[in-house]
Amino acid sequence: MSITILIADDEAEIADLIGLHLEKEGYRCLKVYDGQQAVSAMQANAVDLAILDIMMPKLDGYEVTRQIREQHHLPIIFLSAKASDLDKIAGLVRGADDYVTKPFNPMELVARVNAQLRRAKQFNASAPANKQTIEAGGLVIHPDERAVFLYGEPIELTPKEFDILLLLASYPKKVYSSENIFEHVWGETYYEGSNTVMVHIRTLRKKLKEDAQKTKLIKTVWGVGYTFNG
């Protein structure tokens, strides 16, 4: 079965350029030119990876990602002219798995697509064997459905936030360093100075409403890392 990639960019020349290089790799490409078309294409097709421009008509890339994440778990790469570190961190926090800035090298983008698809396959193959429901302190995690509830209320997590939570909750009391978490969840070698894990842990804690709880589900072990306090 061929792998299908959604390309959403309001600049047709860019979408065509990306599609040309990906099709040479054997991928099937769906090209759309605004955010609403991207959402419709996701509903009508089985998509394996999405490349989304952030600034698009009708719906921007952030909103498209939010709607995709409500029903699908697949790698998303943001493509944007916004090139600052803050923009990149914002993109990753909003649900992207990777962030490529314009102008870009098409072959580098192809390499990133290949890497994301490979990591998705590896993660699914090496995910924790525990597929049973995990319950702790009002938190319920359904691994198969990738669903999380807190005191009966659904909690909307990005794929990376869910993967971090599942990793920690599957092995309670085990302490994971930022390096461990990054290598498990992102499938890459951790690089010095990266605060990606810290940013994701911070937003995960907010969504779990830890500020309002006496017992913290994610405990910081100072100088070492993080552990699930379930």
TrEMBL record:
Residues 131-230 bind DNA. Pfam families: Response_reg, Trans_reg_C. Residues 131-230 form the OmpR/PhoB-type domain. Residues 4-117 form the Response regulatory domain. The modification 4-aspartylphosphate is found at residue 53. The keyword Transcription regulation applies. The keyword DNA-binding applies. Keywords: DNA-binding, Phosphoprotein, Transcription, Transcription regulation, Two-component regulatory system. PANTHER family: REGULATOR OF RPOS, RESPONSE REGULATOR SAER. This is Response regulator. It comes from Paenibacillus glycinis. The lineage of its organism: Bacteria, Bacillati, Bacillota, Bacilli, Bacillales.
